[in-house]
Specification:
153 residues, 5 helices
């Protein structure tokens, strides 16, 4: 892979991370029930927001592992143990994100709200995306392990 392509892909991942972080910090301020709330009320009196921030940790860990994996590809070290570990970590992060989303869906469904459909649909879309990432990383990990075994033989 060329150096320019590696830098471009790493830049895209960094922009995705910055965009996600900006959204996580911006969205609570424009949420309907927080319009007239102070910063303390927004960030310290909403346990669901704490849960969302805790659930975002696997997402950012997976982005960091993606950066590492692209660096391995750029250095032609993709068929190596550290690259396989990075792909495994990405899969585990995707599965953890699915678990966080499932718990959030249960909270949304049992919470008294007038707009459950929007939150449930976002959760379904995020679960679908995370499932695709988990499945792709599982297949990629298997391919890397097979390639590593054939190189060792």
């Amino acid at each position: 892979m060329s150096r320019i392509a590696t830098i471009f892909l790493q830049g895209v991942i960094i922009l995705i991370g910055i965009g996600a972080l900006a959204f996580l910090l911006w969205e609570p301020h424009v949420e309907g029930r927080n319009i007239n709330a102070t910063l303390f009320q927004i960030y310290f009196k909403d346990p669901f927001l704490v849960f969302v921030y805790a659930g975002s940790i696997p997402f950012f860990v997976a982005l960091f592992q993606g950066l590492k994996l692209i660096q391995f590809v750029g250095d032609n070290r993709v068929i190596a143990i550290p690259a396989i570990k990075a792909v495994q970590t990405i899969r585990y992060c995707a599965l953890a994100l699915i678990c966080f989303i499932a718990i959030a869906e249960v909270i949304i469904l049992f919470n008294d709200s007038d707009d459950r459909a929007g939150g449930v649909m976002i959760g379904v879309a995020l679960t679908f995306g995370s499932s695709i990432v988990a499945a792709a990383s599982y297949l990629f990990e298997g391919s890397l392990k097979n390639a590593l075994k054939s190189c060792e033989s």
